[in-house]
């Protein structure tokens, strides 16, 4: 077969001749010549090159032969043929088959061959050039031609509504022109046949018109003829007094195109077509023509919409394709009109009296235009609904109309929707595969803000245009689409990653082309969803890979925890040791470069040195704003520089949160540090001061207060480290590991920071708690100062006493009096003076203890009222032996109440 | 290359089967071979109207020749 394909038409023709006549090539030379001449003669094709019309004709032909099952079978086969798409000229083949069709019920047409044989010899060569219908002409046709076929033929012409004379001649091998048959008898039969035929062919050929066909009785030949002939007579009779129906038909055909007719004119105040009321016309004709005129009105409406919008550039691509779809539908409609016009023309040419029963009447028009009318009505409604919408909104509007139960309307709307959504799909694919937004008219549902700089690209640059999301795309899908394109742009512009998008998604790219747009939107759940999911998954994964590998996002996250959240204990401790002499000075005397040097020393001396230089180089010191009276401790802060892609996760707000948390943690850490110092002093001095028994009371007081403070700060530190930082960190780490896209990481990180801020009492709700805590911290510092002065004076006194004793011993060794009375009196006076200061110290300490305990009790009381469970636990831990509860009656009832509530909750 | 070619052949065969079925439905009297010739002619853009008239004429001619030969015998 493939080899044969290359052959020229002549060779093919010759083999066809041989095949049909069943003779050798030499014997068919004559027939071959004839065939070549016929084929070669270039008379214009009298048929329209439209596959749909041809297939409709075939269906009608089959129906005419009462073979409904075969008609259905043919539709099936035709559909199959359409899907295969091997043939270029399907209409041509089908047309050929239709022309060769023979009704099996008829007696074979080939029987009276003798006359044809003779005919062929002479008539052929002459006639070929003028017309292919030479065989219809001979006058020698037998008049005994079966009537049935003639009438059947007429009816086929009437029902098709698109018949032309060419079809007419080819359909039968040689029917008598109807004019030859005009006589009262056959005419009536033809009429009745036609009526009944119409009734049962219509529902099959065009089912929406079933409504129109239904009222007609599904009559046999017996019932139908009764109403028809009178109408015909009246028409003929009224021609002189009133306007003829033919004139009305002509008018109506103009009105169909939106042109005013002679009698039927557009009535602008009422916005409808009206028949001139002065024209004498019977009511039924008037009614029928106004019903028909609706079509013109609908046409005008659609036409007006397309005309006003198709030149409007700002209407956008989606709008343009909507207009194009409407135009397509109008074109179909115009085709019908042109066929009707042609029919009218033929009638005019042949004179009025010829072939009356196949001529155009208003009733026929009513039936034939039923289907187009329903379509135009839908389109007009659509046009009304879509007024003022554009882009995705327009697609949503069209989609909303697709939710109808009528399969024909649904198909129509689906077709339009396919065209309308095509540009949207194009945008979408460009966006998710190339990250490019070519949306000049703002029709797509992803909007870009060109003023946003690259550092805020991820957060602010792209957004969803809610109104432009077509209703067939879910919010979730839209969000994913936004994210995909955003990721690609982020990779390009922020990460400077130049991997072509094809490499990110190697598998999916090749299979996608916007061609299958309609399929995607119609079976939305399956293919489209998975395509978006795949693109989303691949892009996000790639982006995360790039961030983790090239930009070490996770390492930076851990570095934040180690340095800003004091996770690296040895480093922080050492840093504090080194910084202590600097930070006790006034804040105004601090210099950043000194501190930076100390920071470096601390890094070099501790395990921090093993961190990657990439991280260490970002670590820095920052001095907060100085307010009068601040010491270095108040303004010192570590800092971590974030630039480039990771700044998307560690935004400015995030960093300020980090700094606040660091400030708090640093303060708490310092308290621990101070208490360690206090304890160290107590341990060292305890032995020395044993020799001064008068101090033991004061020292005991000191010890008690110090251990109270140590307990408090230890519990606080425990709470901060384990209940706050570690728990949140673990959550964050899990979420980051499972994150599918950058947004997940950002969200998790924000949740992490928020949790820490609120648990560290830094948010607005816990302000009073934080104030109490600060007060506790202040008391600790004050206690440190008090104890320092105590020790200093005690040690001074001790020193003097030792000196005194030493001097005494020296003198005794030298053989002198150890002390003179004067010296001894002096010494005793001094000792007495020192002893006098002890009660003062005692009272000072008692005051301190009192204040401190008051503050702690207030703190505990506030903790009681907190709803956060971990804070409740903190309060239990701080007051584990109910020491404070015993002292403060206010703590008792509330404590009991909360416990009761808790147990009832459990 | 082999699979597309064979797939194409399959498609062509299927198409021809469908067309043959249509032809049978319409009772055109064409066999597979003539049909395939006709299809090829149509694909080359030949006016189907002319082709159908040629085929009909050829049939008539061959029938008449048969009848003639019959009567002569």
Question: What do these coordinates show?
Answer:
The complex is a heterodimer of chains A (906) and B (73). Chain A has 906 residues and is mainly α. Among the domains of chain A are: 4-139 and 165-180, no CATH class; 244-388, no CATH class; 404-550, no CATH class. In chain A, 68% of the residues lie in helices and 3% in strands. Chain A contains 38 helices and six strands. In chain A, α3 packs parallel to α5 (90-99) and α19 runs parallel beside α21. The two termini of chain A are 85 Å apart. By secondary structure, chain B is an all-alpha fold. Chain B has one domain (2-72). Helices cover 84% and strands 0% of the residues of chain B. Chain B has helices at residues 2-25, 32-43, 48-72. The longest helix of chain B has 25 residues, at 48-72. The termini of chain B are far apart. The mean pLDDT of chain B is 80.
Give a short synopsis of this structure.
The complex is a heterodimer of chains A (906) and B (73). With 906 residues, chain A is mostly helical.
């Amino acid at each position: 077969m493939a080899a044969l394909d290359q052959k020229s038409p002549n060779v093919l023709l010759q083999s066809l001749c041989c095949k049909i006549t069943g003779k050798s090539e030499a014997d068919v030379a004559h027939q071959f010549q004839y065939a070549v001449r016929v084929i070669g003669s270039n008379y214009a094709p009298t048929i329209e090159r439209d596959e749909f019309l041809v297939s409709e004709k075939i269906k009608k032909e089959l129906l005419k032969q009462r073979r409904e099952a075969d008609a259905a079978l043919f539709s099936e086969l035709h559909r199959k043929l359409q899907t295969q798409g091997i043939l270029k000229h399907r209409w041509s083949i089908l047309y050929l088959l239709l022309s060769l069709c023979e009704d099996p019920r008829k007696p074979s047409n080939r029987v009276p061959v003798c006359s044809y044989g003779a005919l062929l010899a002479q008539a052929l060569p002459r006639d070929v050039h003028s017309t292919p219908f030479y065989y219809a002409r001979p006058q020698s046709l037998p008049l005994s031609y079966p009537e049935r076929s003639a009438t059947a033929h007429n009816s086929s012409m009437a029902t098709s509504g698109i018949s032309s004379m060419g079809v007419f001649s080819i359909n039968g091998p040689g029917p008598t022109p109807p004019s030859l048959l005009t006589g009262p008898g056959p005419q009536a039969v033809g009429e009745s046949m036609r009526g009944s035929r119409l009734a049962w062919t219509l529902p099959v050929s065009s089912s929406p018109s079933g409504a129109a066909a239904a009222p007609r009785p599904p009559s046999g030949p017996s019932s139908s003829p009764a109403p028809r002939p009178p109408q015909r007579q009246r028409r003929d009779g009224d021609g002189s007094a009133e306007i003829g129906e033919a004139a009305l038909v002509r008018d109506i055909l103009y009105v169909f195109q939106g042109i005013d007719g002679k009698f039927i004119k557009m009535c602008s105040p009422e916005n409808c077509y009206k028949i001139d009321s002065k024209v004498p016309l019977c009511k039924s004709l008037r009614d029928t023509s106004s019903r028909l005129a609706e079509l013109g009105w609908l046409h005008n409406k659609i036409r007006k919409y397309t005309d006003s919008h198709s030149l409007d550039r700002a209407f956008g691509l989606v709008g343009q394709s909507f207009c194009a779809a409407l135009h397509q539908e109008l074109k179909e409609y115009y085709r019908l009109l042109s066929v009707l016009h042609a029919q009218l023309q033929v009638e005019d040419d042949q004179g009025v009296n010829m072939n009356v029963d196949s001529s155009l009447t208003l009733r026929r028009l009513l039936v034939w235009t039923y289907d187009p009318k329903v379509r135009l009505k839908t389109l007009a409604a659509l046009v009304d609904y879509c007024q003022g919408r554009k882009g995705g909104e327009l697609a949503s509007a069209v989609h909303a109309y697709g939710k109808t139960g009528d399969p024909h309307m649904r198909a129509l709307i689906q077709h339009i929707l396919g065209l309308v959504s095509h540009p949207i799909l194009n945008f979408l694919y460009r966006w998710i595969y190339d990250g490019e937004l070519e949306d000049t008219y703002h029709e797509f549902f992803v909007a870009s803000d060109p003023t946003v700089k690259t550092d805020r690209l991820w957060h602010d640059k792209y957004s969803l245009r809610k109104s432009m999301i077509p209703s067939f795309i879910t919010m979730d899908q839209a969000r994913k689409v936004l994210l995909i394109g955003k990721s690609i742009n982020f990779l390009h512009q922020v990460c400077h990653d130049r991997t072509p998008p094809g490499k990110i998604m190697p598998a999916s790219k090749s299979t996608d082309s916007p061609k299958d747009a309609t399929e995607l939107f119609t079976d939305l759940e399956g293919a489209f969803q998975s395509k978006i999911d795949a693109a989303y998954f691949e892009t996000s994964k790639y982006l995360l890979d790039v961030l983790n590998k090239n930009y070490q996002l996770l390492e930076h996250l851990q570095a934040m925890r180690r340095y800003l959240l004091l996770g690296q204990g040895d480093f922080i401790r050492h840093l504090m040791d080194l910084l202590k002499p600097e930070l006790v000075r006034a804040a105004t005397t601090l210099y950043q470069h000194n501190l930076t040097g100390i920071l470096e020393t601390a890094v070099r001396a501790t395990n921090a040195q093993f961190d990657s230089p990439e991280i260490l180089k970002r670590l820095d010191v920052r001095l907060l704003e100085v307010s009068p009276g601040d010491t270095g401790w108040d303004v010192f802060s570590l800092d971590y520089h974030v630039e480039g892609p990771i700044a998307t996760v560690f935004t400015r707000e995030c960093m300020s949160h980090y700094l606040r948390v660091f400030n708090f943690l640093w303060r708490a850490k310092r308290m621990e540090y101070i208490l360690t110092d206090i304890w160290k002093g107590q341990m060292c001095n305890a032995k020395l001061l044993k020799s001064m028994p008068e101090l033991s009371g004061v020292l005991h007081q000191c010890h008690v207060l110090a251990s109270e403070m140590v307990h408090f700060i230890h519990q606080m530190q425990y709470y901060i480290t384990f209940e706050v930082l570690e728990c949140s960190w673990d959550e964050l780490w899990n979420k980051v590991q499972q994150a599918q896209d950058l947004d997940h990481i950002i969200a998790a990180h924000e949740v992490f920071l928020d949790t820490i801020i609120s648990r560290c009492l830094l948010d607005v709700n816990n302000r009073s708690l934080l104030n109490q805590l600060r007060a506790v911290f202040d008391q600790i510092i004050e206690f440190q100062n008090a104890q320092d002065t105590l020790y200093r004076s005690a040690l001074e006194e001790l020193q003097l006493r030792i000196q005194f004793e030493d001097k005494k011993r020296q003198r005794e060794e030298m053989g002198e009096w150890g002390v003179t009375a004067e010296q001894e009196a002096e010494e005793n006076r001094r000792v007495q003076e020192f002893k006098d200061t002890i009660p003062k110290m005692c009272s000072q300490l008692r005051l301190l203890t009192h204040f401190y305990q008051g503050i702690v009790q207030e703190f505990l009381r506030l903790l009681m009222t907190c709803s956060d469970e971990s804070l409740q636990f903190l309060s239990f831990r701080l007051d584990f032996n109910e020491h404070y509860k015993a002292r403060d009656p206010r703590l008792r009832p509330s404590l009991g109440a909360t416990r009761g509530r808790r147990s009832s909750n459990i | 290359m082999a699979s597309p070619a064979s797939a194409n052949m399959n498609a062509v065969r299927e198409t021809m089967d469908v067309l043959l079925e249509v032809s049978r439905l319409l009772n055109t009297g064409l066999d597979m071979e003539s049909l395939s010739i006709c299809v090829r002619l149509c694909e080359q853009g030949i006016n189907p109207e002319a082709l159908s008239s040629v085929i009909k004429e050829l049939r008539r001619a061959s029938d008449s020749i048969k009848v003639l030969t019959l009567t002569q015998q």
